[in-house]
């Protein structure tokens, strides 16, 4: 039986909810900014999301394409990463409207918030901020390393006869590694190993074997690595490696366990540094990746050493992917700040954008391990978002090309997307996009995601620009 205190709490909740609804409705009604400000000052909660759609005030401002109001709400404490009932953030809505100004405000708020959370987290017991935006607390094989390592993996073929490695999560199977990733791995190995002296002396470290795609590519180099260390913890993957003769390959050393168990061990450090370091793990979050970044000065061997990682950070959500790609760049640059004598390499993230990161030589206290370390190069290569068709997509990029993805299910934007404004004029966009859509609509492909195949109208267009 409820008492007076319960009635008071319910009345307070209702009052707060009414204020939240009033704020959202006022934004949708396009009330002036000063009116919105007064509603907030009277206590309207910026965190409130309605039941019908899961819409927050920030979602509403994004729908109105009101960058001034988006900025105000962010400054007042709006939750940048709240998702509605369709799992869309306000940033996703801004992106769908081609509202680059509002999107950038929301994205930058996310970067600031996540960097602050990272700084506040102690290294002794880091509570990864990525779990706050990429997923809820997840004790399944998809989000828990312990659960993943105790799960049974299934090695099979997909509908396109590509190798897949699957793990069951709940009632469905998801991909641990998929055959369509080969194109990304080929580009990664090319960037890590081409156009460099001393190729015949390469020492390679790979974290996470999976299907062995990238390790197979390393072994297929014109001159095999003189040392090839693979760290892999999952017993099913280790058995798969034994079944395929990896334990007998010359120059290959397999360390059975998590990378955290070996990264500072004599088995790794005694090698004296690696020419190539690559990591692609499963069920780890950004906190783990950030920790791995901090070990790079001890892992990379010298002036031509290169590092790459499979950038799948929030890859099924454009906003989260963008935020964490920027955070990774900042953290890597922070590590690079310990170095001198800059040297840059420009790289392409498939489905994303060109990036360049710089490395300098390690500080004096680390030179005892790597006496030849100088201008260390770093490259990173991104993953393809699951909204595109991995079964048919092969990453490629020329300096005169821009890749555009459209769908017949949604009208193409009438204005030039913000990402392309430096490449073409509004007149050119208006003239060419109808012809592109008409032509490309004949070549729609089915979508193949991890453990799932379904019809899709997604269209891939490769359009050249002068």
Q: List low-confidence stretches.
A: 122-136, 337-401, 440-466
Largest sheet report: 6 strands, parallel
- Rg calc: 25 Å
CATH structural architecture of the largest domain: 3-Layer(aba) Sandwich
InterPro entries: Ankyrin_rpt, Ankyrin_rpt-contain_sf, RMT2/GAMT_Mtase, RMT2_dom, SAM-dependent_MTases_sf
Protein name: Protein arginine N-methyltransferase 2
GO cellular component, one term: nucleus
GO molecular function: protein arginine N5-methyltransferase activity
Gist of the model:
The protein has helices at residues 4-28, 33-41, 57-63, 67-76, 90-96, 100-120, 130-133, 145-149, 182-193, 213-219, 235-243, 259-262, 266-269, 286-293, 296-299, 318-336, 426-440, and strands spanning 153-157, 163-169, 172-178, 203-207, 227-232, 252-256, 276-279, 306-311, 343-348, 354-359, 381-382, 401-406, 447-449, 452-454, 459-464. The protein is α/β, with parallel strands linked by helices. The protein has four domains: 4-120, Serine Threonine Protein Phosphatase 5, Tetratricopeptide repeat; 145-178, no CATH class; 179-382, 3-Layer(aba) Sandwich (Rossmann fold), CATH 3.40.50.150; 401-464, no CATH class.
């Amino acid at each position: 039986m409820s008492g007076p205190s319960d009635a008071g709490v319910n009345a307070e909740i209702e009052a707060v909810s009414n204020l939240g609804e009033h704020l959202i409705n006022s934004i949708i009604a396009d009330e002036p900014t000063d009116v919105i400000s007064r509603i907030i000052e009277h206590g309207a909660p910026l965190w409130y999301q309605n039941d019908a759609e899961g819409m927050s005030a920030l979602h509403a401002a994004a729908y109105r394409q009101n960058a001034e109001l988006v900025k105000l709400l962010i400054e007042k404490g709006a939750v940048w990463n709240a998702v509605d009932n369709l799992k869309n953030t306000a940033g996703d809505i801004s992106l769908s409207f081609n509202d680059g100004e509002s999107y950038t405000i929301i994205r930058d708020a996310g970067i600031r918030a996540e960097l602050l959370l990272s700084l506040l987290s102690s290294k002794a017991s880091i509570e990864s901020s990525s779990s706050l935006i990429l997923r809820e607390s997840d004790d399944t094989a998809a989000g828990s390393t312990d659960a993943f390592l105790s799960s049974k993996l299934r090695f099979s073929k997909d509908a396109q006869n590509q190798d897949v490695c699957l793990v069951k999560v709940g009632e469905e199977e998801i991909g641990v590694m998929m055959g369509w990733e080969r194109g990304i791995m080929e580009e990664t190995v090319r960037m890590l190993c081409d156009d460099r002296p001393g190729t015949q002396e390469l020492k390679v470290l790979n974290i996470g074997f999976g299907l062995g795609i990238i390790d197979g590519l390393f072994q297929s180099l014109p001159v095999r690595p003189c040392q090839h260390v693979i760290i892999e913890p999952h017993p099913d993957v280790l058995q798969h490696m034994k079944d395929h003769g990896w334990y007998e390959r010359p120059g290959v050393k397999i360390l059975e366990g998590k990378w955290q168990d070996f990264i500072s061990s004599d088995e790794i450090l005694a090698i004296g540094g690696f020419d190539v370091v690559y990591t692609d793990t499963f069920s780890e979050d950004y906190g783990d990746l950030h920790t791995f970044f901090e070990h790079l000065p001890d892992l990379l061997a010298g002036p031509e050493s290169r590092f790459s990682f499979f950038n799948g950070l929030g890859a099924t959500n454009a906003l989260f992917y963008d935020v964490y790609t920027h955070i990774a760049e900042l953290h890597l640059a922070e590590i690079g700040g310990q170095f001198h004598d800059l040297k840059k390499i420009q790289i392409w993230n498939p489905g994303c954008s060109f990036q360049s990161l710089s490395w300098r030589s390690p500080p004096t206290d680390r030179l005892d391990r790597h006496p030849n370390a100088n201008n260390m190069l770093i490259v990173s290569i991104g993953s393809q978002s699951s909204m595109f068709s991995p079964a048919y997509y092969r990453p490629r990029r020329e300096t005169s090309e821009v890749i555009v993805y459209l769908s017949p299910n949604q009208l193409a934007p009438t204005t030039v997307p913000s990402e392309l404004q430096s490449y073409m004029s509004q007149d050119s966009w208006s003239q060419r996009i109808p012809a592109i859509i008409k032509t490309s609509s004949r070549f729609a492909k089915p979508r193949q995601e991890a453990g799932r195949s379904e019809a899709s109208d997604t269209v891939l267009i490769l359009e050249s620009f002068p």
